[in-house]
Specification:
It is a single chain. By secondary structure, the chain is an alpha/beta fold. It has a single domain, classed as Spore Coat Polysaccharide Biosynthesis Protein SpsA, Chain A, CATH 3.90.550.10. Strands 1, 4, 5, 6, 7, 8, 9, 10 and 11 form a 9-stranded mixed beta sheet that branches. Strands 2-3 form a two-stranded antiparallel sheet. The chain is globular and about 50 Å long.
Length: 270
């Protein structure tokens, strides 16, 4: 797993709580320090040595740029799962593929590279990053996240996954259900059975137990990867999140510029 390809999901319409902060038609085109949110994610991915190709599923004509020749845009489908399928099909890769959402503009090349390297430590079909609450609180005090208490500690989920391409079709039905429940840990525990609901409510679940049960349910191996980078879990899905990332990135823009990374042409929807 020396090189991986990536799929970035950038097709979500801006119809939720963020619209009162920015009237861009798509969430990925919400402006932060003068650039679409998506572009910060592509900056980071393009700077990761392990990533060879990047496919972005996005509204037709909404964005441009090739990020050192790594990025290709595809018209977005109607659902997250369909966009994952579309991106994987376009890449036609035999190796693992990194699935990334477009709403994590604080993500850094170091955080992505670290996750990929940690995934090499265990053989699996699906790798999912989790971040300790202590790490989040140290770097972003007061930021509200959805946390789960496990025996190993209190964690929030990340916004990427490293997957074997064939697993998406093999497990498409339960993956679609998990996507719909991704913001509700109790509902997710229901996918694993009654015993897990009880243990979840009693804060007695361990990461290894979850991994073993996922293998029983999906018939594939999934592992949780503890990331020390809280940026992996800071997605923009409510106004306070957007305020945070604007504060951080606008501060960085004032302090220095990164012309070698800013290769995308801004085409906004308002």
């Amino acid at each position: 797993m020396n090189e991986v390809d990536a799929v970035v999901l950038a097709g979500a319409k801006n119809t939720g709580r963020l619209r009162k902060m920015d009237d861009s038609f798509y969430e990925a085109s919400i402006e932060i320090a003068g650039r679409p949110m998506l572009y910060y994610v592509l900056d980071a991915l393009a700077a990761v040595p392990e990533i060879k190709r990047i496919v972005v599923t996005a509204p037709l004509g909404a964005f441009e740029g090739d990020w050192q020749g790594k990025v290709t845009f595809l018209p977005a489908a109607d659902s997250m799962l369909e966009n994952i399928r579309k991106g994987i099909s376009a890449l036609d890769s035999k190796g693992k593929i990194l699935i990334v959402t477009s709403d994590i503009p604080l993500i850094s090349p170091a955080a992505i590279s670290d996750f990929i390297q940690r995934c090499k430590e265990r053989e699996a079909d699906i790798y999912y990053p989790i971040i300790c609450r202590d790490a989040n609180d140290r770097e972003f005090p007061g930021v509200k996240r959805t946390y789960v208490r496990l025996r190993e500690g209190v964690f929030t989920g990340g916004n990427m996954a490293l997957v074997s391409p064939d697993i998406i079709e093999k497990c498409s039905e339960i993956i679609e259900r998990a996507i719909a429940m991704r913001k509700n840990p109790l509902q997710l525990s229901r996918l694993l059975g009654f015993k897990f609901i009880i243990k979840f409510l009693l804060n007695q679940l361990s990461l290894r137990e979850i991994e073993a049960r996922v293998q029983d349910v999906l018939h594939c191996r999934g592992v949780g990867v503890i990331s020390p980078y809280p940026q992996v879990g800071i997605d923009v899905d409510k106004p306070s999140d957007l305020e945070l990332v604007r504060q951080v990135l606008e501060g960085e823009t004032q302090a220095y510029s990164r012309p070698e990374l800013m290769t995308g042409k801004d085409m906004h929807f308002h």
